């Protein structure tokens, strides 16, 4: 493939050529964000693979490791990670099977299930975080650009009512 060829730029050109000029910039933006997400996720996945973790499972372990007690109601973990309850159940099932988290009944609310990180989960998330910080320390932008991008993305999420 030609190193100078950018498929997203070509898609933009085609959008304009087909009379969708009013949507071309938005299509380019959305497609660029989605491609950047794919590239970043691939880096994260490669980094977490030796730990047998997906990013979703890593996020749950990290969230639990940050709590004072090491546990949260599953509904609260779901809300904080902004995932569907089914995705949370799947992540907890896999992590529990690996001995990294444990479910327990809430002591005061019989309808609530707590998910808590185990000692093995704490150890693993610590190691995985050290590895993952190599990705986070070099996200592909220099600091001034990163500051601008973080501001723009925060504004964009607010505009979309995140």
Automatic annotation (TrEMBL):
Residues 26-158 form the HTH marR-type domain. One of its GO terms (molecular function) is DNA-binding transcription factor activity. Keywords: DNA-binding, Transcription, Transcription regulation. GO terms for biological process: response to stress. The keyword Protease does not apply. The keyword DNA-binding applies. Pfam families: MarR. SMART domains: HTH_MARR. PROSITE patterns: HTH_MARR_1 (PS01117), HTH_MARR_2 (PS50995). It comes from the Bacteria. This is Putative transcriptional regulator, MarR family protein. It comes from Sediminivirga luteola.
